[in-house]
Specification:
The complex is a heterodimer of chains A (551) and B (491). Chain A has 551 residues and is of the alpha+beta class. Chain A is built from 17 helices and 16 strands. Chain B has a single domain (4-263, 397-489), classed as Amidase signature (AS) domain (Amidase signature (AS) enzymes). In chain B, strand 10 and strand 11 form a beta hairpin. The chains are: A alpha+beta (551), B alpha/beta (491). Chains A and B meet through loops of A and helix 10 and helix 11 of B.
Chain lengths: 551, 491
């Protein structure tokens, strides 16, 4: 089997977040009742005429400038002619051989190395309506009849076309992630692939390494997420490789990606390709982008993700990976800054955002601006970990549960009794149980096998479901193993620190839980000085039955 | 006694304003004349008496309340049935729009409403404005008030015939390659093709977007100038609309032609296929203008011989795209029992469009096809540039150009119907102005040897309407009243 080099180019369509459509005043609200966001122009009523949305053109210009494109001083709208019922005029107003933005590039980082992906062009066009095929399958061939919703028709769409500079599914993924971050930062689009405000087609071909000529290319459609793009490309590269190895060759065609099977299948071959009969749109005048206008738009340019990442990394001393996550979008920077404002250290904020928050968002398929746990609530949780009232593993669990339950993490901590146990007496009981259950290991430890200690710590942690303070476990376990009898603490040393006012939510939980809900005094010099309340009745209460290790 | 329907728009407007008559009476007189005679002319596809009377009543009430209205308030108008009126069926002379009622007003109609102009009906036309005789209307041809066996010209034949017949003193047409000027010429009325972009195209069912322009019909130059003032002006709904103030045309009408340089397009006046009676009447008009003090010279415009060919690539190309929206999906005719959407499209369009429209859609589709674009559409656009340059050069020497509007007078219904090329040649003198986006006017200059009216065409650069009106008015005053068509004897 030979190895081939993949040659990939991406065409990304982005719906602009303007208030009105590209060529009329109709609103662009997503999810409205069908055919309510329309007017004679976007319905293609006979006699209606398009008038370009200046804001949309400026958004495109901003995108072009962000991608280091040259802004053409003179560009044109063309008509792309083909019949399709969801396109009211049976032609789409688009740009053709004279687009507004040309010859740009986007730098992306792949495996620690920088790759420059050329941008052929970024141009303006209008979106189509949506067909709904009524019947059992929802497919056009089996539909009883079809309905058309023209709400989307005429929404401004920017198409960003890359050069065939992408060499792997991973690079494609990085390119799209970076492009999305830029668009998000510019504030020109919602860039929600699941709502269709960002869509992607991929062109892919293979060639022998070291050769210049391109192989036969295949276009893949229906890529509804960055993950889909990556999956489809991985599948398609493999399929083409097998076809080439098997001597079958590649047919130039358009293929459809099936989200369920993860495979691509043929839609139409080149012989069926349309002749769009492009010609300059006579209802519109050319776009004359003078230096003044370009300068005016350039002045609106915000800090771009790349610069933002560098700044965040240096300002807060983060690793590039952490900075990449924190600076992924303006919303994530906002979240980060809100965490810092609530007293979280930058490193902790970055670790939590890149870890638990990112995981929860991915699982929920949501973006950070809709994060169900606010930065303030996450900050409180992180503070609790720092203070030692919740262990890190409990905090992570509480965070994920809070995310799904729609509560704050500390509410979950309270409800589930996930507070860290720093109570020497309580831990001592468990330690004793563990020691008696593992006499052989104890013997080995005492014979000098230091590594057994870790195992015993693990057993204690397991029995406490991770809620025990690791420092206390360490100390108590060592004391017990050294046969030093742990004295009852004199009552004078019993100290109960009062719950902080800000944690008043804890008063809502059950009394037996609240009895161990002491927050440590933040001024305490070390965790070993922290709450050491110890009465046997309390131990019994929480020691059984939830803590006991099975068996 | 002069009948009300014989009066000019300016005169009617003055009488209504002075309450010597009411807008309602003026509208009713015209509506009864239409009712009595339109069976033989077929100028209208749809009559809008309710709309006209409502407008007239409003005008009368406002005048009674002491309001000062525009000079055309209460003066009836025939609107080419290719401009949208909210709630009034619009056919474009085509079966494919059967039952279509637009949900909005075209800008021209909005302006007419604002000027208090009652629209008495929607006038017949060649289907989608493609033709020179109205014979391509799916609803039967209109007839020329000078001879009911002859065509009124086209495509705005219904509007021209209506103004000529005394059905309305004002008409609105559209001119893509001569569709206002040629019928004006054949019906003996005034027709203006304004500068491209002077009058909004919003609400005009597009034929060829880069050439289409709305303009007035009237029986006098002053009326035409008044109507153009009412409908011209920048419109934010039309991106090709010229963002400039409309100068007052009527004010400068009487300033004369002394010292103006008028260039006679020699190839047109003596050209091949020009009817001798047409040449004779145009020559007489030139002498008249000369005696008024204009400096007359001759000019030849070589690129114009290619103009017709270029036009018949550009216009069909644009029409093939503009007419794509008539597909049976949203409005108009839908062929029944199609098994899928493609069949529905094909069958609806096959049944809905007439032969000439189909011919042009096919021509245009071909001209825009991959591999042919440069040879046809691209080349045609180059010719267009040459035509513009020739005009520019001509206007270095002359203020205005002059020639006949049409090579012949009105021809018989059916005479050229089967010969598209002979029909296309009707527009040979009018097309260059459309290609150049320039202004032109046609006005009557007497009758030819066959007793039919001849049109004198005056051409000017873009935005020269004021100048053209001035020259036309001077000639009109020198010429004196024209004969009336035989239909004026009937009531």
């Amino acid at each position: 089997m030979s190895t081939y080099e993949a040659v990939i180019g991406l065409e990304v369509h982005v719906e602009l977040a303007t208030h009105s459509k590209m060529f009329c005043d109709s609103p662009t609200t997503f999810g409205a009742e069908p055919n309510t966001q329309t007017c004679p122009v976007c319905l293609g009523e006979p006699g209606s005429l398009p008038v370009p949305n200046r804001r949309a053109i400026e958004y495109l210009m901003l995108i072009g400038l962000a991608l280091d494109c040259r802004i053409a001083p003179h560009s044109l709208f063309h008509r792309k002619n083909y019949f399709y019922p969801d396109m009211p005029k049976n032609y789409q107003i688009s740009q053709y051989d004279l687009p507004l933005c040309v010859e740009g590039y986007l730098d992306v980082e792949v495996d620690g190395a920088e790759r420059r992906i050329g941008i052929t062009r970024a141009h303006m066009e209008e979106d189509t309506g949506k067909s709904l095929h009524v019947g059992t399958t929802g497919r056009i061939a089996e539909a009883k009849y079809s309905l058309i919703d023209y709400n989307r028709a005429g929404i401004p769409l920017v198409e960003v076309v890359s050069e065939p500079d992408i060499r792997s599914a991973l690079e494609a993924q990085r390119y799209l992630t970076e492009l999305r971050a830029i668009l998000q930062t510019l504030g020109v689009s919602d860039v929600r692939m699941e709502e269709g405000s960002m869509r992607c087609d991929a062109n892919v071909s293979l060639r022998a390494p070291g050769t210049e000529a391109f192989g036969t290319k295949v276009e893949i459609k229906n890529l509804n997420s960055i993950r889909s793009v990556s999956r489809a490309l991985t599948y398609e590269i493999d399929r083409q490789q097998k076809a080439l190895d098997g001597g079958d060759g590649i047919v130039q065609e358009t293929r459809h990606f099936d989200e369920n099977t993860g495979k691509t299948h043929s839609l139409r071959s080149k012989e069926e390709a349309f002749d769009y009969r492009y010609f300059p749109e006579p209802d519109l005048v050319p776009i004359e982008a003078g230096d003044d206008w370009i300068a005016e738009v350039r002045a609106l340019m915000p800090e771009l993700p790349r610069a933002r990442r560098a700044r965040i990394a240096s300002e807060h001393d983060l690793t590039p990976e952490q900075a990449a996550f924190v600076a992924a979008s303006p919303s994530s920077v906002q979240y980060f800054e809100a965490l810092l404002a609530s007293g979280t250290a930058a490193r902790d904020a970055a670790v939590w955002m890149a870890g638990e928050l990112s995981r929860a968002l991915n699982e929920a398929g949501e973006s950070i601006e809709n994060a169900r746990v606010s930065a303030a609530d996450l900050a409180a949780l992180i503070a609790a970990v720092k203070e030692g009232t919740v262990t890190l593993s409990s905090a992570k669990k509480a965070f994920q549960d809070a995310y799904t339950a729609g509560k704050t993490p500390l509410q979950i901590v309270d409800e589930r009794g996930l507070h860290q146990v720093s109570d020497d007496g309580a831990i001592a009981t468990i330690v004793d149980e563990v020691l008696s259950a593992n006499e052989a290991e104890v013997a080995r430890f005492r014979a000098g096998e230091e590594k057994v200690f870790k195992f015993l710590v693990g057993q204690v942690m397991k029995a406490t479901k991770g809620q025990a303070s690791p420092q206390v476990v360490d100390r108590v376990l060592r004391a017990r193993l050294a046969r030093v009898r742990v004295q009852e603490w004199p009552s004078s040393r019993l100290r109960r620190s009062e719950p902080k006012g800000s944690r008043s939510r804890r008063s809502r939980v059950g009394s037996w839980v609240s009895s161990r809900c002491r927050s440590s005094d933040p001024s305490s010099p070390s965790s070993s000085d922290r709450s050491r309340a110890n009465t046997s009745s309390r131990i019994r209460t929480w020691a059984a039955p939830t803590w006991r290790a099975p068996g | 006694m002069t009948e009300v329907w014989e009066l000019s728009a300016a005169e009617l407007g003055r009488m209504i304003a002075r309450k010597e008559t009411s807008a309602r009476d003026v509208v009713d007189v015209h509506l009864s004349r239409i009712e009595a005679l339109d069976d033989s002319v077929n100028a209208f596809l749809t009559l809008t008496p309710d709309l006209a009377r409502a407008t007239a009543d409003d005008v009368d009430q406002r005048i009674a309340a002491g309001e000062q209205l525009g000079p055309l308030a209460g003066v009836p108008l025939a609107l080419k049935d290719i401009l949208c009126v909210d709630g009034v069926r619009t056919t474009a002379g085509s079966k494919i729009l059967e039952g279509y009622v637009p949900p909005y007003d075209s800008t021209v109609v909005r302006k007419l409403r604002a000027a208090g102009v009652p629209i008495v009906g929607k006038a017949n036309l060649d289907e989608f404005a493609m033709g020179s005789s109205t014979e391509n209307s799916a609803y039967g041809p209109s007839r020329n008030p000078w001879d009911l066996a002859r065509v009124p010209g086209g495509s705005s034949g219904g509007s021209a015939a209506a103004v000529s017949a005394g059905f309305a003193p004002l008409g609105i047409g559209t001119d893509t390659g001569g569709s206002i000027r040629q019928p004006a010429s054949l019906c003996g009325v005034v027709g203006v093709k304004p500068t491209y972009g002077l009058v909004s195209r919003y609400g005009l069912l597009a034929f060829a977007s880069s050439l289409d322009q709305v303009g007035p019909f009237a029986r006098t130059v002053e009326d035409a100038a008044l109507l153009l003032e009412a409908i011209a002006g920048h419109d934010r709904m039309d991106a090709t609309s010229i963002p400039e103030e409309v100068p007052p045309y009527v004010k400068g009408l009487e300033s004369g032609v002394k010292g103006l340089r008028i260039g006679v397009v020699s190839d047109w006046v003596e050209g091949e296929g020009v009817q001798p009676g047409v040449t004779e009447r145009v020559r007489a008009a030139i002498e008249s203008l000369s005696s008024l003090g204009a400096e007359i010279g001759e000019i030849s415009l070589p690129s114009f011989r290619y103009a017709l060919s270029a036009y018949y690539l550009i216009a069909p190309a644009e029409c093939s795209s503009n007419l794509a929206r008539y597909d049976g999906v949203r409005w108009g005719l839908r062929a029944p029992e199609a098994k899928d959407v493609v069949e529905m499209n094909v069958r609806s369009r096959t049944a809905g469009f007439g032969d000439e429209v189909k011919r042009r859609i096919m021509l245009g589709t071909y001209a825009l096809s991959a591999g042919y674009y440069d040879a046809y559409y691209g080349k045609a656009q180059q010719v267009r540039t040459l035509v513009i340059r020739d005009f520019e050069k001509a206007y270095e020497r002359f203020d205005v150009l002059l020639g006949p509007t049409s090579p012949t007078t009105a021809f018989k219904i059916g005479e050229k119907a089967d010969d598209p090329l002979a029909m296309y040649l009707n527009d040979v003198f009018t097309i260059p102005s459309n290609l150049a986006g320039a202004a032109a006017i046609s006005l009557p200059c007497g009758l030819a040897e066959d007793g039919l009216p001849v049109g004198l065409q005056l051409l000017g650069p873009p935005m020269s309407e004021g100048l053209l009106f001035k020259v036309a008015y001077a000639y009109e005053q020198a010429r004196g009243p024209v004969d009336a068509p035989p239909l004026w004897g009937r009531s």
